[in-house]
Amino acid sequence: MKFRYKVLMVNLIMLSLSLGIVGYLMIRRNFELARDTQVKNAIMENNLVQSSVEYELLQILYNQARQVQWIEGEISDIGDRVVGGMLAESSSVYIRYADSYVYSSDDAETRISDTLYSELNIGGKNYMICKEGEKYFIYVTSYSEVRNRKLYIVSKQEISDVYRMLEEQISYFRVLIAVVVLTVSVVLYFISIYLTRPLERLNQVAGEITAGNYNVHVAVSGRDEVGQLAGNVNIMADAIQAHILELKEMIRSREQFVADFTHEIKTPMTTIIGYSDMIRSMELSREEQILASNYIFSEGKRLEIMSGKLFELLYLKQHTLKMSPVHTEDLERELRRITVPMLEKKGLELRTDIEPSVLMGDKDLLITVFVNLIDNARKASKEDAVIRLNGRKSLEDACYELEVVDYGIGMSQEDAQHICDEFYMVDKSRSRREGGAGLGLSLSALILERHQAVLRVESKLGEGTTMRVIFYENTKTASEDEETCK
Amino acid sequence: MIRILIVEDEKPISDLIRWNLTKAGYGCTCVYDGLEAANILENQGFDLIILDVMLPHINGYELMEYIRSLEIPVIFLTAKSSLEDRLKGLTSGAEDYMVKPFEIVELLARVNIVLRRYRKAEQCLKFRDIVADVDNQRVTKAGKEVVLTPKELELLALLMRNQNITLFRERIYEEIWGAEYSVESRTLDLHIQRLRRKLELGNAIKTVFKVGYRLEDTDEVSI
């Protein structure tokens, strides 16, 4: 059952119950008051009759000095006089003197119950209400003694009006209660609709969120519980939307990575399959065989490099680094040892200018980064050029900057933005010739990110490139400043 | 001679295609990016273009817009194999679409089909004194007609199109019967035997031990 109907039902039941109880008590009280008045009237009438009868009876007995035995005929006269003089039409009187019925104004004495006579003391009165047919009557009995003989006077009066009034009131009250309950239920219905409308709206919004539409808001104002709930639902929807967007972005970047990876792997695959297909299905000369197998070899090598780099990337993403102090002089010495032989093949010179300092980091990974940067510089440089490796402290920014500078071919602004993307190569064919996999800088960027260091690229086509790595001493500033490479 | 322009930025793949097409008797020119391709197309005419999609400077789809006005058939070559990419390639006006990695037989077959569609390749395949007219289902040897079943004709055409190339059993099954190769099946060997007998190709169709067959013109010197 809907909440609004529950509210409606509970309210209606409470209302009907309370109205019923109040009405019942009111009508009952009313009836009792009216009946008591009637009883009082009847008793008063009985008193009147009694005193008149006693008076007349005594007068006859004293004045005429008669014997009680002869009085019977007189009683009937007295009864007629008294009754004819003072009683209303609906009333009747019975007079009984000396244990025998003597007078009845309407010949109905047999209906008078014996209980009316019993339990009465001298001067006492008793009354009883009886239903005869559709009518209600009150019988009042009085008992006294005249000349040592019992005198009972029973007066009967119709009080049907009181009961009719009761019935009228009850039926009027029924109509009244029906009208009131009907009116109130209509009003309550609209009130409950008005009160539960925000809930309905919330319900719809929850449904939409379930259906996947997170860009919904509840327009419910107010400071009550419903308003608070609406506010919280809005906050929840926003949070879900943010999370979903984040997840989607994550999935998109994963998919992009997989797509890039598949595409990247297709080239060596095509080469390997194509040339091996040639070797197996054609008669090739010795030179042709060497050429073909050389292609297979070098592309196989590239796949190997790629898988190694990929493994490192995945490894880095999942493991924490072991940070320890790294002396910049050590770093310089190691880098020289690794890169100089490689550079000399192309006639390149590495000039270093390193200000001694200590960095916190994983030494092997840092060496990987700088070997990578120097190797990129080597690939970009023309023969017999210079590559610089500079390191200096910057006191005002509380950081240490290490930069690799080359004077080679440089790259465009657009390329510079993408060089950290996985598989991105500025010049594909040249990079392939040099054995690149397009993963070196992505890897370096990830390593630096894990060191809270920042990589900045400055490059101009034809003039060269400066790759600057900034290590912050206070690592917190790094994340705020991180914008070049993520 | 039929001239084919190869637009492919990966040198090893470009070399691979050129090498094979040259061996199959086509004249090839290689360019390594879209801009270069547009330049060379301004000055020279070609019968077919093999076009990579991912190219530096101008990509394959963009270049396609330009090529369409020249009415040169194009075979797209790409690493992207999704349905979307295939549709995009074909709706852009390319004749065919080839996904990397590919086999040489597949490359030669597609090139041949597209050229025949454009009536640029000879309609009849020739080997010594045998002429096979695939479209009209006729084979003649020294001018006299030889009756072949459709499958025998298809097999003969496959062999003739790939002269001096070893055709592996799997590949032949796939091309002719469109089915998976099963080791026990002797169908292929029976067809080869009948071809040898009907066309007196006993020596020319060489059995390459365990792997397949090769139609070899022993007089021809390999390139």
Task: Describe the 3D structure.
- The complex is a heterodimer of chains A (486) and B (223).
- Chain A has 486 residues and is of the alpha+beta class.
- Chain A has eleven helices and twelve strands.
- In chain A, helix 1 crosses helix 2 and helix 5 (286-318) runs parallel beside helix 10.
- With 223 residues, chain B is an alpha/beta fold.
- Chain B folds into two domains: 3-117, Rossmann fold; 124-215, Winged helix-like DNA-binding domain superfamily/Winged helix DNA-binding domain (Arc Repressor Mutant, subunit A, Orthogonal Bundle).
- Chain B has eight helices and twelve strands.
- In chain B, strand 7 and strand 8 form a beta hairpin.
- At the A-B interface, helix 4, helix 5 and helix 9 of A face helix 1 and strand 10 of B.
Please provide a brief summary of the model.
Chain A contains eleven helices and twelve strands.
Strand-helix topology:
The complex is a heterodimer of chains A (486) and B (223).
Chain A: H1 3-63, H2 72-86, E1 92-97, E2 100-104, E3 125-132, E4 135-146, E5 149-158, H3 160-210, H4 225-281, H5 286-318, E6 324-327, H6 328-344, E7 349-354, E8 358-361, H7 363-380, E9 386-394, E10 399-406, H8 413-418, H9 428-433, H10 440-450, E11 454-460, E12 464-472, H11 475-481
Parallel strand pairs in A: 7-9
Antiparallel strand pairs in A: 1-2, 1-5, 3-4, 4-5, 6-8, 9-10, 10-12, 11-12
Chain B: E1 3-7, H1 11-23, E2 27-31, H2 34-43, E3 48-52, H3 60-68, E4 74-78, H4 83-91, E5 96-99, H5 104-117, E6 124-127, E7 130-133, E8 138-141, E9 144-146, H6 150-161, E10 167-168, H7 169-177, H8 187-199, E11 205-208, E12 212-215
Parallel strand pairs in B: 1-2, 1-3, 3-4, 4-5
Antiparallel strand pairs in B: 6-7, 7-8, 8-9, 10-12, 11-12
